[in-house]
Every structure is written in structure tokens, then in C-alpha cells.
Design a protein that fits this description.
With 392 residues, the protein is of the alpha/beta class. The chain has helices spanning 13-21, 45-52, 67-81, 87-90, 97-108, 129-136, 161-164, 185-198, 220-227, 240-243, 258-271, 277-288, 291-311, 333-344, 376-390; strands at 31-32, 91-94, 119-124, 140-145, 167-173, 201-205, 234-239, 252-256, 325-329, 346-347, 349-350, 367-371. The strands form three sheets. A seven-stranded mixed sheet has the order 2-8-7-6-5-3-4, with helices on both faces. It has a three-stranded antiparallel sheet with strand order 9-12-11. It is globular, with a radius of gyration of 21 Å.
């Protein structure tokens, strides 16, 4: 016997990609541009900090994060967004933001709303944990197509009163994965007002916040502060994976109102997966340092310029504001991905693997996602092969 709520989950994107491609030989030297795994160098002093604190592997970790880590995270929020948070009451360490994005739903989304099945809103395309978290609490995931027509962000105001009255949580990723779109101050404010009117929480996934061109993306915490919004309405997630090129460290944090944090800590006491103490020490130092982040952003800036130079004249090309993905229009994402692999060896991801059908369409169907994580020369070569194969 198995739970029915997970019975119809589609195959996850990357096993699905392997099924599509691996039976076919690559048509050239392989260039991996699929997964958003940063490849820039992380600060080498991280290794020394872990070694210096290696005795901590012999002890159970502090479940919610040691005080020095929480202080470093809240200090960074203050410098980055100008918000003042009590690290002990408003911040909790996470074993990567995916863990937090999932478990926050367990801790904060009620079983019913107004006597009806709750609704969880998610952009479409989306990070797949959003959907699974919704299903795990018995909620109905409602997918909001984020297309060129909507500015690649979901139109929350287009929802009916019936749906909005059942919403318990709305997920939003800004900068967006995969389109690289940044939610403006006005957009965040509109969403906060909607959440206040219909009494739901906003789960703001801001893990790409430090990879941008020129202007730092506005954050939900600063907008909520300026509006005087209830801090319990906002749950913001941040990570070192992209900011510091350390996806394997599995370190992030969540910031919210004290009642939300207390609820998440209580669940974590029973079902959490805390970060080992040597890694907590490393994370604390990383949140306190901006030098490596600035260098990382400079490298991505060069990659934006390379992508614009190679692809900028293509019809429908959307130059990302932030993040490290390209969201490229094609006639059929799966067919384009297979052709590109067989003819050139460049490996990308069909956009439909990141989205669900909603309103009779799959908004990712006519796109491929391309990760700009390979070294510059390799990335440029891959983009030129892609351009010549699919658009030549």
C-alpha cells in the first residue's frame, strides 16, 4: 500500500532527461548545461574552517542553528535589505533551502481553510519541491502560468475569489528559476496586500538573490517592513548554494515572524535534519563575507554578456535580469533537446520538465532551460553550437 497523493507524480526532471537522451550517442564533445549546479570556485578558506572545527562531527548539531550562525544570517539580512531581526526569534538555519521550503509547509499550512481543502499557489514553471510540499499536506496545488504575456511572473490577481479564499500559501521565486525575472517592489507589495486580504502566507524563495547584473533585487522582507505588514505573513528563504558556490554544503536559513519560526523549530525538533557543527561554523563565516560574492557576481556578469552576444539577435530571446539560466524559445522543448544532444553533444533541459499543464497548456513546452554554469570558454562554445543547431 502506498499513499495515493504521490501516485501521479511525474518522473523528476533529471531522470526523465536521462531517459530521453542516454539511449543516444552525443553528436560532439559533451557540454553539460542542464542542472543549476554552480561551478565557480568557492572560497578555499571554507576547508580550513571545517578542519579547525572537525571535532564538532562528534556531537549532535544545534537543531535550529548555533547562535553565531543565526547572528551572521541576521547580520547579512541587515546589510543586504536594511531589516533588523532578532536572530534567536526570527531566523532558523536550514539544511539547504529545499528542506526548508518543504518543511515550512508541514509546519505552517493548516489542514483546512474555511472548511474546505486548502490551496497552495505556485508559479508555473516552478521548483518541483513546491508541488510535492503542497501534496504532502493534502493541499491542492494551483499552477499559475508565468509566461511572456505575464512578464514571466505569475498573475496572482487573476485568480477567482473561490480559489483565493482557500489559499494558505503562495510560493514565489525571485529572481525566478528558470526565467531570471525579478519581482519589483510594486509586485511584492501587491502580493503582500493580496495575502493580507485573503489571509495566506508568502513563501519567498530568494536563493538566487545575489546573482544579478547591476541592481540588487529587492527582497520581500524590506518591502514588508516598509508596508508595516505582519511579519508572520512572510517566510523568506536564503541559501549559500548559489551565492557562495557551495551546493554541497547544504546550508541556508529561513526568516519570518517569531510565531512561524517557533512552529518550524517545534517540527524540526522531531523531524529536522540539522547542519553538522563544522559546517555551521563555515556557514557563519560565509554569510559574513562579501568579497567572494562580488567576484562570483562579476563572473556571471561576463557570462550574461557572452550569452547576449551569441544569442541576442534570436527572435524571442529574453536576456535574464538575474540568476544563471537562459529560458530559450523553441518549437518543441523535448524535440529540440534531443536534436541538440544527437547533433552537437550539448545537454540542456526541456522546459516542460519544469512545469505542469494549467489552463490547457504547459507553459514550458516551447522552451529549453540552459544553465550558464560551465567555464566561460566551454559555455560560449556550447551556446554557439546550440545557436547554429536550433536557430541557424
Amino acid at each position: 500500500m502506498f499513499p495515493e497523493r504521490f501516485a501521479n507524480l511525474p518522473a523528476y526532471a533529471f531522470p526523465r532527461l536521462r531517459t530521453l537522451l542516454d539511449a543516444h550517442a552525443p553528436g560532439g564533445e559533451v557540454v553539460h548545461m542542464t542542472i543549476g549546479e554552480p561551478k565557480h570556485a568557492f572560497p578555499r578558506w571554507v576547508i580550513d574552517i571545517i578542519a579547525e572545527n572537525a571535532d564538532g562531527f562528534g556531537s549532535y548539531p544545534v537543531n535550529e542553528g548555533m547562535p553565531a550562525l543565526l547572528e551572521a544570517a541576521s547580520g547579512w539580512l541587515g546589510r543586504r535589505y536594511g531589516v533588523t531581526l532578532d536572530p534567536a526569534r526570527h531566523v532558523m538555519a536550514l539544511n539547504g533551502t529545499r528542506e526548508g521550503l518543504y518543511n515550512a509547509m508541514m509546519a505552517l499550512s493548516p489542514e483546512t481553510k474555511g472548511g474546505k481543502r486548502p490551496v497552495v499557489l505556485t508559479p508555473n514553471p516552478f521548483y518541483q519541491v513546491y508541488m510535492v510540499a503542497a501534496l504532502s499536506v493534502g493541499a491542492e496545488p494551483v499552477f499559475l502560468n508565468a509566461t511572456h504575456e505575464t512578464g514571466f511572473l505569475p498573475d496572482f490577481n487573476a485568480l477567482s475569489e473561490e480559489v483565493l479564499n482557500r489559499v494558505t500559501v503562495a510560493y514565489l521565486c525571485s529572481p525566478a528559476n528558470p526565467q531570471g525575472t525579478v519581482a519589483s517592489r510594486a509586485y511584492w507589495a501587491d502580493l503582500i496586500r493580496l495575502a493580507e486580504r485573503y489571509d495566506f502566507r508568502i513563501f519567498a524563495d530568494e536563493c538566487y538573490s545575489e546573482i544579478y547584473r547591476d541592481t540588487p533585487p529587492v527582497g520581500i522582507l524590506e518591502v514588508a517592513r516598509d508596508m508595516g505588514a505582519d511579519p508572520e505573513r512572510i517566510v523568506a528563504f536564503h541559501s549559500l548554494s548559489k551565492r557562495s558556490n557551495l551546493p554541497g554544503l547544504r546550508s541556508g536559513f529561513v526568516a519570518s515572524g517569531p510565531q512561524n519560526i517557533a512552529q518550524m523549530k517545534q517540527l524540526r525538533n522531531y523531524a529536522g535534519s540539522p547542519l553538522p557543527m563544522p559546517l555551521q561554523h563555515a556557514a557563519a563565516k560565509l554569510w559574513a563575507d562579501e568579497t567572494h560574492v562580488i567576484e562570483n557576481r562579476r563572473l556571471y556578469g561576463e557570462k550574461y554578456e557572452i550569452a547576449d552576444e551569441i544569442l541576442g539577435n534570436l527572435p524571442g530571446y529574453h536576456s535574464p535580469e538575474a540568476g544563471f539560466f537562459l529560458w530559450l524559445p523553441v518549437e518543441d522543448g523535448e524535440a529540440a533537446t534531443l536534436r541538440l544532444w544527437q547533433e552537437t553533444g550539448v545537454r540542456v533541459l526541456p522546459g516542460a520538465y519544469l512545469s505542469q499543464e494549467a489552463g490547457g497548456v504547459n507553459p514550458g513546452q516551447g522552451y529549453i532551460r540552459v544553465a550558464m554554469v560551465a567555464p566561460k570558454t566551454e559555455m560560449a562554445g556550447g551556446l554557439m553550437r546550440l545557436r547554429d543547431c536550433l536557430y541557424g
